[in-house]
Specification:
176 residues
Length: 176
């Protein structure tokens, strides 16, 4: 799964704190999201069909996340942050379900259930952030949840722990 490293790179536009109404930062973030999406798609083209499908939906999900964050910061309202979190949760759900579809039997069903639970938690967190009137930075929070068996979660591990993590991600070992 070579596409994993490509999609993990961060957005340099967000290195400085975005300011509400900053049209230049908004346009730059959207342009960067489009460029990174094109790069990720070109890398997906080199993969096997099975991996290409997940790579493409993941690239689309990452683009959606970047664009939604940019729009929320540009608008600068709690409602914009709420809408962004909901769109990001939906993009994560779509990517997770595509990832889960490649598993078999009970592993696939468990994966899909966890993906839907994660989606429901993200929606509840978005609703709570809006009710609390949190500042936009806090309202958006960590908008990069991943399914527990996503192989990208294994990147920071070493040795046997990494091998066990990758085995779970491939569905060869039941998840804990």
């Amino acid at each position: 799964m070579a596409f994993i490293g490509l999609l993990a790179c961060g957005s340099s536009v967000w290195a400085k704190a975005p300011v509400a109404g900053d049209k230049e930062a908004y346009d730059a973030a959207r342009a960067e999201a489009a460029q990174q999406y094109k790069s990720a798609l070109s890398a997906c083209g080199k993969l096997a069909v099975r991996d290409k499908d997940v790579c493409q939906i993941t690239a689309k999900s990452e683009r959606t996340k970047r664009e939604q964050r940019a729009e929320a910061f540009y608008k600068g309202t709690p409602q914009a942050a709420h809408q962004a979190r909901l769109a990001i949760a939906q993009a994560d759900l779509d990517a997770s379900l595509r990832f889960c579809a490649q598993r078999n039997g009970s592993v696939s069903r468990a994966c899909k259930l966890e993906a839907r639970e994660q989606y429901n938690r993200a929606k509840a967190e978005a609703d709570q952030a809006q009710r609390d009137g949190r500042p936009i930075e806090q309202a958006l929070g960590n908008t990069t949840p991943r399914h527990p068996n996503d192989p990208r979660n294994c990147d920071s591990l070493d040795g046997g722990a990494k091998h066990a993590c990758l085995a779970r991600a491939q569905g060869t070992v039941a998840s804990p």
